[in-house]
Amino acid sequence: MTGADSCSNTPQTLHSPRQQSGFSNMGPRLHVALCGADGGCRYERLLDGNPVWISSTGGSGGLKRGAGRAAAASERVSPEEMDQEYERRLLRQINHQNLPTEARLSKCVSATCSPVSVKSGDRFIPTRAGSNWSINFHYANENCRSPNQNHKAKDASSDSSKDAVAYAALLRNELLGAGIETVPDPHTDDRRHAVLSQDSHSLFRYTVHTKRVPFDSDNEVSPYSLSPLSNKSHKLLRSPRKPARKISKIPFKVLDAPELQDDFYLNLVDWSAGNLLSVGLGACVYLWSACTSQVTRLCDLSVDGDSVTSVCWNERGSLVAVGTHKGYVQIWDAAGGRKLTSLEGHSARVGALAWNGEQLSSGSRDRVILQRDVRTPPTAERRLQGHRQEVCGLKWSPDHQHLASGGNDNKLLVWNSSSLLPVQQYSDHLAAVKAIAWSPHQHGLLASGGGTADRCLRFWNTLTGQALQSTDTGSQVCNLAWSKHANELVSTHGYSQNQILVWKYPSLTQVAKLTGHSYRVLYLAVSPDGEAIVTGAGDETLRFWNVFSKTRCTKESKSVLNLFTRIR
């Protein structure tokens, strides 16, 4: 047999409908007969792609064969009969697809049901009954991106990204009636994905306005306008665009700092409210004036065989506290250049200092935190014991009510002004906690950073004792500082990238990445105007950067539902 074994040993030449319409017969063609389980041949498909239907001959014992006789007589089918047969098979196929699952299963359990007995057409006709179309416009395509692509998209602050945001807002206005009048900020926290409640479930909705709205309404366009856009979209296009935030990646000033120690547990740089920078270099403390660039030496501890381990200015910028390697805390008058007092009490080096009004807190390697009032005799002190290793970080909250302390025991403790025991304890860090910063914008918000084995920034709600957010920075976190004007913070890092990162909170997107130090960036201080920072490293340099903007942040919400709002 030529081709496949069809219903006869000597196949007849079958003519397609195209040959019926006047095409000449080109001779015998190769064909294939499809036969069902009952033995009847359904139709043949020629190799040129033209289907020819033939009459089926039933049989229970397979294909009938005879010498010189065809088991199934092929008949030429007219186009009208072919169309009717096609319609019947199409209806059977649709009815079969619309049957419930139980009906299909029960039908296939019968003895006569087999996979080859299902009559299917020669065309693919898709069914869209169960299709799930994602037609909501506000669904962004970030869900199908990788985390790295999302991170790069969040960091993008170019004009093209802002144009894309404006274009998306314009489409929302025209297609969904969102009523957006200003271009949203690309750096806004996009984790919340605000859903349009009134349009998300009925995108293609037709409404008939029974009452005529006034002409000056925002929803109606002037009849004399040649623009197809609505008034809301016109306001959107006319809205002022915020200039792109650009942070210089080059420091505007670099100072040499010889003998600046490369020690993670020390705090040797601080900036006063009087625009004086104090730096501990070896056994001396130097003051650098940001106004005149004049450098003066405040004290020299080499005569006592001691060295500087920490410096800290009071809030007014008149007094500077100096912690020493032998465990002393000296109070110096910056204007007069004289030592006012020397406080004892620690048995090891004092690596952390924090002022709270006229009270001074000091943390030492002896695991003790001492709180003393500089106006009273040195014997009046409070001893706070909670850490099991060296205390390397101390910061008072802006409301002067709570003290946060970090230690080499990987613990972050929160103390109040009256108790001798910590009121809160956080143990999520996996390394020493030196970087501590209270937010000046949200009450009770505390940020902390871990050492080399942790590398994480973590945020805490000290009002409820809950952990809020965390992110892996990829390197040792040495210092943290919040911006005074915007809801941003800066972090300095050590092993292994030695970088400076500016973060936007609460989205935790990186606004800028600054590099230049060749050693760990162990020291950080913010200028009194809150616009510049100074960083120090073991490469014995001090670098000044402009990182924070002058624009004021929006006022904090006064709602009683806001957990960060103080209820007085």
Automatic annotation (TrEMBL):
A GO cellular-component term linked to this record: anaphase-promoting complex
Any one of the GO BP annotations: positive regulation of anaphase-promoting complex-dependent catabolic process
Residue ranges of the region described as Disordered: 1-25, 57-81
CDD domains, A to Z: WD40
Keyword entries, A-Z: Cell cycle, Cell division, Mitosis, Repeat, WD repeat
GO molecular function: anaphase-promoting complex binding; ubiquitin ligase activator activity
Pathway: Protein modification; protein ubiquitination
A Pfam match: WD40_CDC20-Fz
Record's compositionally biased regions (Polar residues): 1-24
InterPro entries, sorted: Cdc20/Fizzy (IPR033010), Quinoprotein_ADH-like_sf (IPR011047), WD40/YVTN_repeat-like_dom_sf (IPR015943), WD40_CDC20-Fz (IPR056150), WD40_repeat_CS (IPR019775), WD40_rpt (IPR001680)
SUPFAM superfamilies tied to this protein: Quinoprotein alcohol dehydrogenase-like
Protein name per UniProt: Fizzy-related protein homolog
Provenance organism: Collichthys lucidus
